[in-house]
């Protein structure tokens, strides 16, 4: 005997309808990046939770395409990073159609009557499964780093630590002491107290001037 078929009542029918509506309501799902478009800052995603069918089997959710990505930004500043296939995160689904806002950046009425639909996904990268957690997690402060920890900028209480080669374009001003355990080099000149390291001269023992450093 099938209870929902043979002993159905108006109440059970209502329960089944509510259950079906809940199955069609999407809020958030873990997802993996399939591809990333840096010009539009959108991704194609593969949802990592399957749809459960009425017979108990599972089916893949179709790929989520043209999904806007959340990068930390505000006040004229942004933090960006290139997303790669396989990167994990969470897809959230707007309660209303986002097409009008997404295309115009203006408040707009929904262009469609859909609710909590898969086509209205937005992606927040970073939330990950246990096998993809950050190894040797830094607990001493703020860290911007490669996943393997080989290169980083870390802010601790009272200090900033950098590991990796640095390429700087622009002027530099230093207040306070500066020390180095390596070589400081310049392909033009080095000035110290207004004197050129390339062309300075010293007074000679007999009253003249020495030649420039070679």
UniProtKB/TrEMBL annotation:
Region (Disordered) residue spans: 193-214
Source taxon at top rank: Bacteria
Domain Phage protein Gp138 N-terminal: 29-126
InterPro entries: Gp138_N (IPR041599), Vgr_OB-fold_dom_sf (IPR037026)
Coiled coil: none
Gene3D superfamilies listed in its UniProt record: Gp5 N-terminal domain (2.40.50.230)
Short name of any one Pfam family annotated for the protein: Gp138_N
Biased composition (Gly residues): 205-214
The protein, known as: Baseplate protein
Organism: Rodentibacter mrazii
